[in-house]
UniProtKB/TrEMBL annotation:
Cofactor stoichiometry and binding remark: Binds 1 Fe(2+) ion per subunit.
EC number(s) reported in the record: 2.3.1.234
Highest taxon above the source species: Bacteria
Gene Ontology cellular component annotations, sorted alphabetically: cytoplasm
Matching PROSITE patterns: GLYCOPROTEASE (PS01016)
InterPro entries to which the protein is assigned, alphabetical: ATPase_NBD, Gcp-like_dom, KAE1/TsaD, Peptidase_M22_CS, TsaD
Cofactor annotation: Fe(2+)
Domain Gcp-like span(s) in chain numbering: 27-313
Subcellular location, principal: cytoplasm
Enzyme class: transferase
Similarity comment: Belongs to the KAE1 / TsaD family.
The protein's name: tRNA N6-adenosine threonylcarbamoyltransferase
Gene field: tsaD
Amino acid sequence: MIKDIKILAIETSCDETAAAVVVNGREVLSNIISSQIDIHTKFGGVVPEVASRKHIEAIGIVVERALEKADVTLEDIDAVAVTYGPGLVGALLVGVQYAKGLSYGLKKPLIGVNHIEGHISANFIQYKDLEPPFVCLVVSGGHTFVVYMKDYGEFEVLGQTRDDAAGEAFDKVARAIGLGYPGGPKIDKISREGNEEAIAFPRANFHDKDSLDFSFSGIKSAVLNYLNKMNMKGEEINRADIAASFQKAVVDVLVDNAIKACKLKRVDKIAIAGGVASNSHLRESMVKEGDKNGIKVLFPDPILCTDNAAMIGSAAYFEFLKERIAPLELNAIPNLKLGER
Ligand code: KG4
Ligand code: ZN
């Protein structure tokens, strides 16, 4: 009989301190997340220095709770996994140092995980039978990619943002219309009361027509210009209409490129990942277009879309199977690229 592999995973790349215990990359025994959102809200965004300090305060207790909830001890763990990039360097270092300490002390293998690969892996937890190849649209606060996942841990980037990430655009526009941080969920909510056809915000156009790249800074600037114009004319703005029109502009581009990528790779399934994958309009629109084109659309539950450690434990399992064990010199790499090791 093949032994179950239990991985203790740690995630501290941005503003959530998270730990989880995951069996065989698919079964989550615990998934503990300590969010710093309340602290950063006061500043309108994540303050890196504050994030690192809060990770240091929280990490011990978060790991302890993850073990408790999973009803396992450190001795039961087969490997320790940690996000080592991309992310905020000071924040990443807290998790990396902690994981290295545990790995050394317990004499258990250490596995370094790419945060974006973790987001993609959330789909393996949600869909127990999902196997590569498939296309994945990764949309988070820091990243926007459409990738072809050839095999576990093997990626081909088909398109990526040339400027702002999708989530970043949501957050910036939310701030501009006074909705606060984090903006994505707030824009999602208020959009339900707005008219998405009210304002025609532009979609990026590249010279290279076949490009699957994204650009969101133009849409964001168009919203800011619109606000300025209305302000100068002394006219009232309708926040719900602005939010709904902006959201539609972003989602149209995401869906369009995602479907094109599936056709290019001749695959009939697409997984969506990252914080913005929780967006209700993106979910509806992706499913509708997927149905039209015979493509199955997969979404993890919202708790697995935003930053968490279960997704890191899942990605780590497939690294473990490939014997990609990290040395104790493992360092945080803030700009780690997808597929890079
Ligand atoms: O994946 P994530 O938790 O962190 C990063 O790795 O960046 O994503 C956070 C991002 C934020 O920009 C947040 O505004 C966005 O995901 N987000 C959403 C929604 N929920 C979270 N954006 C649009 N609609 C949502 N419902
Ligand atoms: Zn993330």
